[in-house]
Amino acid sequence: CDLMTGAPRGRLHPITLQPVEWTWTRNYGCNTPSASEHLMTFRSGAAGFFDLARDGGTGNFGGFRSGCTNNLIVAGGLLNAPDYTRTCICAYQNQASVALVPMADAEMWTFFGSTDVKGPIKRLGVNLGAPGDRRADDGTLWVEHPSVGGKSPSAPISVDGKIEYFRVHSSRIGGVGIPWVAASGAKGITSLTLTLDKDSQQDQPCTVRLHFVEPDGAKPGDRVFDIRLQGQDVLKDFDIAKEAGGGDRALVKEFTTQAGKELKVKLVPRRSVPVLCGIEVYAGGAEPSAAKSDAMPDANVLHTALTVPESAVMLRPPGEEARSESEGTTLRSFLWVVVGALLFMWVFFRFGLIGRNKAA
User: In 3-state terms, what secondary structure has residue 300?
Assistant: First the structure.
């Protein structure tokens, strides 16, 4: 519901773009949630939060837990956590009062909660080798593969090859693209298949973005491979280090194609093994946004047209006109006068009758 008014809220499912109920989840915990405009806090094993600003999922601050009474207080741009656990025997490393400040370079990964993806995929990012899910500033939900960070939408994806996953901190990554996507990936991957709509009977237009990085410091010419999309060659003799300008530099390649039930990507090694960090798909008319680095959005994405206002007019049966505020006030005043008069008459009659009985 809306934290300010209590009105029911919905969301567009980030993968299917269908209206669904707004829900959230957490791991085990014994306290109640507390919310500010952009952040909801609670215990989720350790200290937990839900990113309201991005509708980005549930995350954790490792190393300390919140109290059985919620002590995660958002105020003045800080997350304050006075120690409410001094009598607790739970085995957490840090038992102290802390205050956390926002840091743009801090990596915060989340899990989105539900594993069900009901309906065809319209918009999805798959982040290979990532430690969790993350919502980009353009609204795309990037889900981890393989799943290691918690319950999240299961991307219907299969990969082949002698795969070795890698991950570094995103602060090491330069270049063009999303640093925290390029900070992890799969070496040795030879194919990737993503099921878009298992019931599809015809192809639909798709925009596909492939994210790359050179993770091993290979020089131009050391790692070369071809890329095929839906069986068609889209890149020949692709050299990440050459095109990105060196190692640890993100690179994004965008293609358009037609796909029905499945989207298939094949990477054919020419020299050394292929590398892929992530795949971003916009299918069936979903509009791709400009690729850009992650940043805090200007507005809370929960404040959308999906808000369901609590309105007396909406709840009134069709055809019945709404009374004006003045009419409602006049009617209430009249009813109070009638009730008061009846109460006065009852008291007068009651006590008058008792007096006559005593006199008799």
Answer: coil
The 10s digit of each residue's pLDDT in 24-40 is 788 877 778 888 888 88
* Sequence-ordered list of residues with C-beta below 8 angstroms from that of 353, at least 6 positions apart, any chain: none
Q: For the domain 114-283, what is the CATH superfamily, name and number?
A: Galactose-binding lectin (2.60.120.430)
Q: What secondary structure does DSSP assign to 117-174, as a single string?
A: --S---EEEEEET-SSBEE-TTSPEEEEES--SSS-----EEEEEEEEEEE--GGG-E
Read off the pLDDT of residues 164-183 as tens digits, 9 standing for 90 and up.
999 999 999 999 899 999 99
**CA–CA gap between residue 357 and residue 360 (Å, rounded):** 5
Q: Counting every residue, how long is the chain? A: 360
**Cα–Cα distances in angstroms (integers) from residue 200 to residues 30, 39, 138, 147, 215, in the given order:** 45, 39, 27, 26, 37
pTM given for the model: 0.75
Number of CB atoms found within 10 A of residue 94's CB: 15
Q: pLDDT tens-digit profile of 60-102?
A: 887 777 777 788 888 888 888 888 776 676 766 667 788 888 8
CA 233 to the chain's CA centroid: 34
